[in-house]
Design goal:
single chain, alpha+beta, eight-stranded antiparallel β-sheet, seven-stranded antiparallel β-sheet, 23 strands, disordered N terminus
Length: 460
Amino acid sequence: MKPKLQLTPKNKVKVRASVRLAYVGATFALAVAVAFLVYYNFGTSEKSIANEETVLPGFSKRAPLLISNDIIRGKEILTSFPVLIKVQSEELKHISKGGYVTHPKGYDIRVTKADGKSILSSQIEEYIPQKGELSMWVMIDTLSDKIGRDLFIYYSNSTIKSELPPVIWSFGYEAVMHLNGNTNPNNTRKIKSTQSGTSDALGKISSGKLFSSDRKDFVTYNYARETDLSGDFTLSAWIYLNELNKKQVIISNQGDQPGGYCMFIDQNNTLNASFYNASGKLIQFSETQRGETLEKNRWYHISVVFSTGEKTMTSYVDGITDKTNQVIDIPHPSAAELQLGRIQFDNESYFSGIIDEVRISSVARSQLWLATVFYNESLADKLFSLGNSEELSLSAQLTKENKTAILESDKNELDKNASNNTLRSNKGGGNSQIPGVISNNAEVIQARLNNIKRVAEENN
């Protein structure tokens, strides 16, 4: 019979001590890991750094800029995403109106990451100094439902005399037309516009451009290689229709020779798009693919995405997939000029209504990207808020310059700036209309957001 193995008391003590040591070590490591995760995700590690005087030099005021976790409409992580931020504060008024912003156009407003020092690329869409109302585009490097994106907004720096360069629109954006006062792209100096008619109107975001088919309004842009797309692309815009049951072009670079692309509303009042391949064949959605029927007197965010990798052309209305075509061809280059409001030489394609925020990208944006654009730009004033402001210590010289700026504020420039932000009703002829208040607008938006959320859940 095999003898039983027995451990001496000494051996027992050693085994138990090692087990206890391993247990204690594992428990300690786990506690450290949990504490780190809690601190990183829910604590104030980055903000505490900022509160220890890691601040932008030259500014006398700042406030936390809080972003709703509900801004992104799915689980995908979006990188280099331009968000539209809308906030209002007494402190954001111009100094001549009782606030702290020193530049009449808000150029001394900056946004940083939560560390309080890493400046984010930004561009002011609209600033009303008398009210302290700010609409600003800010490039967020990473946008996710799991990553907090609270920021800091800085203001009150009289040494700043100009706005930041528009590098915010360099991440795949070949042309961005805000149509806010002028029609030139805001992201490039190479492309210039020539207006044939059109007038200012209340846009979806600040002001837009009103096109009349009766007056044959359109805008022309000089040829540029950046907008002559021959691979992946995304075309998008906000539109407000004043007429139905006719072809209405939003954007096109098609001319008298085969080549180029076009995004338009067809005679069935649905979103459509086309491009010519290398053989001169016109590729577009078929007549049987009707998609959503658009209506007059309301805003739509429309997009068309062409993907060479997936071999598809897909249309989207308010961030929801409208229709998809399998496509083996790619767009053929065009020598024609880019135009808004019509196809060149086509007198039956004039747009009637308002166009705002036209974007041309050389990448195929995802459905989540476009859904987040629609959600963000529809509810920008609900998704962001300002925390309590903080006084920052300045040198005696900077304090003196800020006070001097109060005495040197140009009243004429302020009045002119206010006038530019007060849009007048169009007095021209034709059948153009200015959008009024739509009683069910909030309900329509909420219904579409519910659909977006449902689609996002189904895709995940």
